Amino acid sequence: MIVEREVWRGIPLLHVAPDDEWSEPLPTVVFFHGITSAKEHNLHYAYQLAEKGIRVLLPDALLHGERSENLTEMQLIVRFWEIILNSIQELDYINHIAHDKGLIKGGIAIGGTSMGGITSLGALIAYPWINSAAVMMGAGNYVELSKAQIVQFESRGYQLPFSEQQREELFDTLRKFDSMENMEAFNQRPVFFWHGEQDSIVAFEPTFRLYSQMKEHYRDAPELLYFMREREAGHAVSRQGMLAATEWLAKHVKV
């Protein structure tokens, strides 16, 4: 396979594809990394997908990887939703550029770990052209999660640089991408979830609650929604989870 570093509209990304099909249109997956991580940290997902004949695009999120501004972890967390909303917007750019380059055959799928999984769920709400997704340790309850983060920050004595009006404006924006408030937007597209029950970073329960409510919308096609849970796992995807996610994406992106 071939791995190339490219920059699309100011977005650094790794472009991975089988070497004998590099120039051919292929089913394509865009895969998002987690907070404080970077594009190259998910190359094992790209390897598994490329081995199955899939093109993979791994972008660096705002303020991460090649776009780093050397912020502390807390500074990144304060800008968490800015980063996610920016990634959702940039996915549209990536999709258009990939089509303009003639790289895509059939569908385009998305996936991601942690912050990348959260990004993926928001992107599913935003873009009906996404044909499937794999959400690793992600959450779709944007408003609930953002309010809980604020409470957590303030309980630790941090003074957040947001007025009350700015907070309400943030919540109003996040509602547009919130899975719980836009359930019909999934439209029975194939979605795979992986989550460890001992996850202390992105809580298991809200994501499983989302999945449980989504099942009502997948009554006519229950096989298109799958939740893989691991009882002893924390905030780290197991090899079994990674392999299951890449199998899911490879199967459904080709449809």
From TrEMBL:
User: What Gene3D superfamilies does this protein's entry cite?
Assistant: alpha/beta hydrolase
The protein's superkingdom reads Bacteria
Q: Which residues form the Peptidase S9 prolyl oligopeptidase catalytic domain?
A: 107-252
What's one Pfam family here? Peptidase_S9
Q: Which UniProt keywords apply?
A: Hydrolase
Cleavable signal peptide: none
Q: State the PANTHER family in the record.
A: DIENELACTONE HYDROLASE DOMAIN-CONTAINING PROTEIN-RELATED, POLYKETIDE TRANSFERASE AF380
What is this protein's record name? Prolyl oligopeptidase family serine peptidase
